[in-house]
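Input structure tokens:
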């Protein structure tokens, strides 16, 4: 069952690289109108939820557990909420659930949401065997926000959710569509080199592949907005004669120079 009193929707997950900070600028970036919406690095979905596109949305991510969670939320939010209501935010229960292999789509989704909300930093990290291994977070915030889960479910009704590499739905991109691209930033902001981000590293080759994907979007007369690390190599790869903005944002991780706590990101767009 889906609640009728939905006003706004916001992310239900804590997600590394989440774009909550960009949401307040998004209205200045969007085209006046667009057809379908595509977001192939959906992560915590902050941008999709803020944009609230009216047509179909093609959402995907390489993280299978994430996409399965969203699919379960789309289908039956109450089933997940009822399971979450039986959970408790304690160290003992966290480690018990972390070790347990859940079966059933709603139990798996409830486990994913619970571990994300009560873990140390909300990051999704697995060991070499692919087992989630983030420690308990001692957070006092309520891990169950029913309204947010219902609101997300409502928003996902128009969305096709796919697990896979960012190219998975490329044949669906047509004239007038909008594609929002938020890849992992594999070059560090202090320009010292590459950072490890996800289970699978988004390599320099992937950045070149993403550049070709942007070419395909443009060939199809669709719009794109791409965020990426402010780095010389990134500037070179995505230099397509379109617009490039630099956005500053506060970082929780401070540097040791006069720019401490402020990092720069690029936004590329043909809008
Ligand atoms: C910066 S995060 C996206 C954050 C999202 N915009 C938000 O606001 O929460 C990047 C996402 O890309 C996904 N990812 C990594 N490599 C990928 C690939 N090759 N294809 C598709 N998704 C990938 C990660 O799982 C992660 O969720």
């Amino acid at each position: 069952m889906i609640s009728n009193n939905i006003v706004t929707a916001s992310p239900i997950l804590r997600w590394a690289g989440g774009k909550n900070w960009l949401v307040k600028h998004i209205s200045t970036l969007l085209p006046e109108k667009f057809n379908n919406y595509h977001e192939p690095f959906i992560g915590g979905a902050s941008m999709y939820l803020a944009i609230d596109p009216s047509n179909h949305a093609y959402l995907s991510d390489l993280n299978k557990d994430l996409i399965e969670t969203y699919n379960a939320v789309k289908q039956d939010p109450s089933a997940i909420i009822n399971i979450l209501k039986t959970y408790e935010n304690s160290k003992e229960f966290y480690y018990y659930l972390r070790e347990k292999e859940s079966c059933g789509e709603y139990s798996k989704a409830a486990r994913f949401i619970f571990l994300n909300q009560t873990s140390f930093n909300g990051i999704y990290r697995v060991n070499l065997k692919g087992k989630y291994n983030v420690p308990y977070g001692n957070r006092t915030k309520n891990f169950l926000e029913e309204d947010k889960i219902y609101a997300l479910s409502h928003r996902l009704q128009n969305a096709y959710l796919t697990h896979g590499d960012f190219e998975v739905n490329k044949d669906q991109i047509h004239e007038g569509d909008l594609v929002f691209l938020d890849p992992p930033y594999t070059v560090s902001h202090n320009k010292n080199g590459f950072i490890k981000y996800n289970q699978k590293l988004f390599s320099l080759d992937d950045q070149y592949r993403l550049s070709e994907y942007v070419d395909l979007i443009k060939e199809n007369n669709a719009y794109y907005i791409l965020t990426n690390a402010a780095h010389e190599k990134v500037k070179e790869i995505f230099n397509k004669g379109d617009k490039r903005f630099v956005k500053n944002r506060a970082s929780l991780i401070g540097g040791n120079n006069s720019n401490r706590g402020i990092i720069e990101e690029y936004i590329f767009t043909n809008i």
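The chain has ten helices and seven strands. The two ends are 38 Å apart (CA to CA).
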